[in-house]
Design a protein that fits this description.
InterPro entries: G6PDH_assembly_OpcA, OpcA_G6PD_C, OpcA_G6PD_N. This is OpcA, an allosteric effector of glucose-6-phosphate dehydrogenase, actinobacterial. Residues 170-297 form the Glucose-6-phosphate dehydrogenase assembly protein OpcA C-terminal domain. With 355 residues, the protein is an alpha/beta fold. The chain has two domains: 6-174; 180-274. Helices cover 32% and strands 23% of the residues. It is built from ten helices and 14 strands. The strands form two sheets. Strands 1-4-5-3-2-6-7-8 form an eight-stranded mixed sheet, with helices on both faces. Strand 2 (37-42), helix 2 (48-58) and strand 3 (64-71) form a beta-alpha-beta unit. Helix 7 (209-222) packs across helix 9. It is elongated, with a radius of gyration of 31 Å.
Length: 355
């Protein structure tokens, strides 16, 4: 063990990691685990420390076994290196596991023996997630799979749509979790004005998965047309619901304080700050049952995107048929048939050429 309270295991395996976790728990004077779940974090090496810090904060509310898995290069022989974190600042049990070589194709073989028995398993991808989290080898171990389209490094504009298209029960995205205060505030405002909504307008940054989900969710629940506008941010800056009594609006230009406007009532300020990752993660870990509203929202967003694609294709001009080159008139220089015909007339022979 190092002075910092980290047990480093070189060239180890799942049994060695499990034994080291048990030894660390005994050394800490905690023979009973007292943990409620296993949280598996699949993360690039450069983001591992930040992700573990966020998970450690969330684990203060939800004591968990934290397993950060870094899947490295698949070349060469299998190698497993692990760091067991103990001592000050550690909550529950933490292990940073780095895989390389052939074992990267089967990471579940390392993680499966480390899962707490008879406890929920949650897998979290802090940055880029697989196209199908439920079909991923590690995702298949979990009852809850958490992605974050807003933090995707590649294909950022399409990350949310990819997750929506492959939705399975137990999937969720932190872009949806960010909307909890917005959804609560809008629901409370609509309770004050019991009237049908005839239009929805949302202003947000150009790439804002949360704005896309909020628009789809409102359109699905309110059955009203949606308009999406671009703003400078941060995040969502304005949501307006049009009714015959006037507009219900929530405007948040600075990411911290919003103004709520309801017909027949004075405008009032509302705290609506942008939350950090540990707070979002802790909220998601509070409920491990399927989210039916999120399921309906992602289906609606997928359908809306497909309809927009069909409309765009329908608006494209029809492809013009290729013009065939006009045939050359007989008798012009360079026309083979004309030359043959002319030669035949001059010699009085057959114009069909040799047999």
């Amino acid at each position: 063990m190092t002075a910092s309270g980290t047990i480093v295991l070189e060239e180890t395996d799942a049994a060695g990691i499990a034994s080291a976790l048990l030894d660390a728990r005994r050394d800490a004077g905690s023979p009973a685990m007292g943990m409620v779940m296993t949280l598996v974090i699949v993360v690039p090496d450069e983001d591992a420390e930040e992700a573990l810090a966020a998970a450690r904060e969330a684990a203060r509310e939800h004591p968990s076994r934290l397993l950060a898995v870094v899947i490295g290069s698949g070349r060469g022989a299998s190698a497993i290196r692990a760091e067991i974190r103990t001592g000050a600042g550690a909550v529950g049990e933490m292990a940073l596991i780095r895989l390389s070589g052939e074992v990267t194709r089967h990471p579940e073989s390392v993680v499966l023996p480390l899962l707490l028995p008879d406890s929920p398993v949650v897998v979290w991808w802090p940055t880029d997630a697989p196209d199908d989290p439920a079909g991923d080898p590690l995702g298949a171990l979990a009852s809850r799979r958490i992605t974050d389209a807003a933090q995707a490094r590649s294909r950022r504009t399409q990350a949310l749509l990819v997750q929506c298209a492959s939705y399975a029960e137990g999937n969720t995205d932190l872009a949806w979790t960010r909307l909890t205060p917005w959804r609560a505030l809008l629901a409370a405002a609509m309770d004050q004005v019991d009237v049908r909504v005839s239009g929805i307008s949302i202003s947000a940054e150009r790439v804002s998965p949360s704005a896309d989900l909020l628009g789809a969710g409102l359109a699905d629940r309110l059955r009203a047309p949606l308009e999406r506008h671009r703003s400078q941010g941060p995040g969502i800056t304005d949501v307006t619901l049009t009714t015959r009594r006037g507009d219900i609006s929530v405007t948040r230009p600075d990411g911290r304080l919003a103004t709520l406007s309801v017909p027949g009532a004075p405008d009032r300020p509302v705290a609506l700050r942008r939350r950090d990752i540990p707070e979002l993660l802790a909220e998601e870990l509070r409920r491990l049952d399927p989210d039916d509203i999120y399921a309906a929202t992602v289906k609606r967003l997928t359908r809306m995107n497909a309809e927009e694609g069909s409309a765009a294709d329908a608006g494209k001009p029809a492809k013009k048929p290729d013009k065939k080159p006009a045939s050359k008139p007989a008798g012009k220089p360079g026309d083979t048939a004309a030359r043959r015909r002319s030669a035949g007339e001059q010699s009085g022979g057959n114009t069909e050429g040799p047999s």
